[in-house]
Design brief:
two-stranded antiparallel sheet; DNA Binding (I), subunit A; alpha+beta; hydrolase; single chain; elongated
């Protein structure tokens, strides 16, 4: 479930359990129902699991200059495609190998298929004559912070995440 701030700013993805606690304790309201979603029953009440909830009170979010790099966010940035051959990506590769001083950062990591990753090993692209199919840049925007916490995006969340989320 997607958690929005009181200002409808996306905060994070929540587990169903945490979302139910927020709803029952009147700390959050349902913004987008999930008609096909499950319903949780207790002795005194039943709660339909929504896909998007919003906090009733504003929560100040500390400013972070960079989006944390996670496997899920990197794969989403590269659209699950190998940066070398364009095939289906399964692994993450350091363009400048860590054994040669390469950093574990947005600007040095790409999604890669296993055969290309194995073939490249600890070599530089110039040694192999390979090129990258897309630039290695750090993403920006609230939906990227969400992607660093969750591997998948519910299509109903897109309207709350702003431009560039799709």
């Amino acid at each position: 479930m997607l958690l929005l701030n009181a200002t409808y700013e996306p905060l994070t993805a929540l587990s169903a359990r945490r979302a139910i606690v927020l709803l029952i304790c009147d700390k959050a309201d349902t913004v987008h129902d999930n008609p096909e979603g499950p319903v949780v029953h207790s002795a005194g009440t039943s709660v339909a699991l929504p896909s998007v909830i919003r906090l009733r009170n504003y929560v100040r979010v500390p400013y972070r200059a960079r989006v944390p790099m996670t496997r899920a966010a990197l794969m989403h940035r590269d659209r699950y495609r190998c940066a070398y051959c364009g095939g289906k990506a399964e692994t993450i590769d350091h363009v400048i190998p860590r054994s040669r001083g390469g950093a574990h950062s947005w600007e040095n990591c790409v999604a890669s298929c296993a055969p290309c990753n194995h073939r490249k090993a600890d070599k530089l692209l110039s040694e192999l004559g390979w090129i990258l199919h897309h630039p290695m840049v750090a993403p920006k925007g609230p939906h990227w912070r969400l992607l660093s916490a969750s591997s998948e995006l519910d299509p109903t969340w897109l309207q709350y995440l702003g431009e560039g989320a799709a």
